[in-house]
Input
Amino acid sequence: MPGNSASVFATVYQCVGAAVILPLYCITFVWAAGKDGYNPSGREVRNSGMLLPVVVLGYVVPTALMFYPWNNLDFFQWSAAFWQAAPLYPNLFVYLASLAGTTSPASKNSNSVNHVKGLYVLTGALSVASHFALLYISAASGNPALSLSSVLLPDETARMKDTAHGLFWIFQWDFLGTFGAVLLWTWVSVVEMHRVSGNGHLTKSLAATVAIGIATVLGGPGAALSAAWYWRETKMVFTPRVKAA
Output
């Protein structure tokens, strides 16, 4: 199941590029989830109570350290290098906890879902905060280089100015490719849940398109992803698996 190797995919895309690796993960996930053996109901997640703290310590903190405005260049380089393997740290923390005997068996389905949904609330809140920070900085700066179009849309003419502009251009395309793939994956997953529950109508697909689009504009693509997966976790609890025709 690709979910078990999500941290491996994430580590690779942090070193190679999310726009290259993440679509492969999305395709693998959709392929695995489409099998009859993938049963969304009655799931139990082992160590689900550890999800939130290990993700905060293993991924959120290293990411925050990387963005901290260090005055020392060595600190910045070390924090960036430390961040590269951040997707693996939560698994490492869980493994160390298991050695210490502090892990827990799979909890009941409702508890597992609540822990997972709590993680989506955190990621959604962080995404909304960063989204509004971007909008505020762009609107308040008065600097044309910080306008939304300059920040989000690659400029073919500017990328040849120097190395910094060239790297920025690469990161812009990486951003667009990453969230384009993620939003498409989110839409496919939502539509698939409607199909599995026997409600795979065209109106549901259109509604999902509108909802994801609105969430992306208001809260950013990360918030749209978190909201969709929060809804999906709730839906999966009460949805029996319908075999594909």
Remarks:
- The chain is about 70% helix and 0% strand.
- The radius of gyration is 20 Å.
- The CA atoms of residues 70 and 76 lie 6 Å apart.
- The first helix runs from residue 6 to 16.
